Amino acid sequence: MFLKSFGHAFLHALKNLLPIVAVVLFFQLIILQQVPDNSLNMAFGLLIVAFGVALFLQGLDLSIFPVGKSLSNQFARKGSIPILLTFGFALGFSAVVAEPALIAVANQAMEISEGRVDALTLRILVAISVGCVIALGVFRIIFGHAIHWYMIIGYILVVLVTFFAPEEIVGLAYDSGGVTTNIVTVPLIAALGIGLASSIKGRNPLIDGFGLVALAVMVPMISVQLYGIVVYSLSADTQAAFQAVTHQATQHVLVTAVLDLLTMFRDVLPIIITILFFQYIILKRPLSNPPKIAFGFLLVIIGLYAFVVGLKIGLFPIGYSMAEQLINLNRFGFIYLFAFMIGFATTMAEPALIAVGQQAEEASGGRIKGNAIRLMVALGVAVGITIGVFRLITGGSIHYFIIGGYTLVILLTIISPKYITALAFDLGGVTTSEVTVPLVTALGIGLATHIEGRNVLIDGFGLIAFASIFPIVSVMCYAIVADLLTKFNKVES
């Protein structure tokens, strides 16, 4: 039974990789008319990524998902506000610490900044931010506050902090927000929100149940920029000492593959502790099937390890290689086309987006069409990544692009139908998958490396942020147009 289920998961993971492979092959064979030297290694790396994702998902299905959903339902029925808030914080923190995409981006940031940005510190900071804001989101659902006020005030703060943040941290901060909601967090957080909204009298699952993912994207953007203000204000001597300590610690952690595997266990440990604490200490109930759950956690750890290894062998080199080859071609139009196609293709195959689209269609009673939402989100991601690449190539300041983007989002939030607000912001957080994030990150870093006058740390990050902003814009525009058409048809009839 397990092998059959794993086989399906592996084929599903390969299917999600196919759009990337198709786009890369199109550009290699038709546009560039050459095959990269390390193509076999890349292909092997992609297989390892698929294997790791399949194991990881199987582990989630056996352990974290059923236990997390069970806990959410039990706490919702229990109705204790302090316990619900505490559980929301613990769930947000523990899930984000183990987020594969965040691990990949944090490691890249530490490597490029030569230790100035510490990967573990960055991950813990983002995890604390998400934990706090999930607790805030639970508070909002319980008391029925409108989500748009939270989002408008929040993004005004994001824009204000951006004015004072060092340019080296801005792109990374926005990317950190974009990768917090992914393969681990979205199902758990979405289940918590919809479960609460469904169990509290007077709450609407569509209006009140969505929104937790959006909050989890927004707040890390503020906290990471504040972290950057502190880090980049350190003296040279303090920073040199910090880099030395970081380098020694990294050497000890990466001595052998066994220690790498233990590091993966450390990443997943907060989730295990959270579940055991709330299950046995708060609810005082035993787990239904401890051996099955333990086996699931083992698969999560091994899958996470295989995924990270596959990234280094497959996806990162693909992004770097495509960036280098397209720059050498000296025709920027093809770079924009590649950015658009890779954004659209990978988003249309994104499992989390398909799931959220179906949930939205059910919660809205058919007023929102799942397939239309997927198309709008995919177009938003494609346009966003293309604009991000344009900014990178032309050398424009990311501050102005990001501030302009979120100013547009705030304006649309004011005029768009209120039923779409929470869903639109959530969709901005589920578009960057565990496959898309490493490839897009590598593309940005590769372009910044090979374009003269670009700083890799300042210009290399930020593409994920654009991929998170513009789906919000496209979905809100879709809702505004659909609402106007509905009103127009009523007047005509």
3D structure, described in words:
With 493 residues, the chain is mostly helical. It has helices at 2-32, 39-62, 64-78, 81-97, 100-112, 119-143, 147-164, 167-178, 185-199, 205-209, 212-231, 236-253, 257-282, 290-329, 332-348, 351-363, 370-394, 398-415, 418-429, 436-450, 456-459, 463-492. Helix 6 (119-143) runs antiparallel to helix 11 (212-231). It starts with a helix and ends with a helix. Mean pLDDT is 78; it is low at 241-256.
Helix content: over 70%
Tally of DSSP helical segments: 22
Strand content: under 5%
The beta-strand count equals 0
Calculate the mean pLDDT score and round it.
78
Rg, please? 22 Å
SSE class:
mainly alpha
Q: In one word, what is the shape?
A: globular
Distance between the termini: 56 Å
Largest sheet: none
Series of H and E elements: HHHHHHHHHHHHHHHHHHHHHH
Low-confidence residue ranges: 241-256
Topology:
Layout: H1 2-32, H2 39-62, H3 64-78, H4 81-97, H5 100-112, H6 119-143, H7 147-164, H8 167-178, H9 185-199, H10 205-209, H11 212-231, H12 236-253, H13 257-282, H14 290-329, H15 332-348, H16 351-363, H17 370-394, H18 398-415, H19 418-429, H20 436-450, H21 456-459, H22 463-492
Helix pairs in contact: 1-2, 1-15, 2-14, 3-4, 3-9, 3-13, 4-6, 4-9, 4-13, 5-6, 6-9, 6-11, 7-11, 7-18, 8-11, 8-22, 11-19, 13-14, 14-20, 15-17, 16-17, 17-20, 17-22, 18-22, 19-22
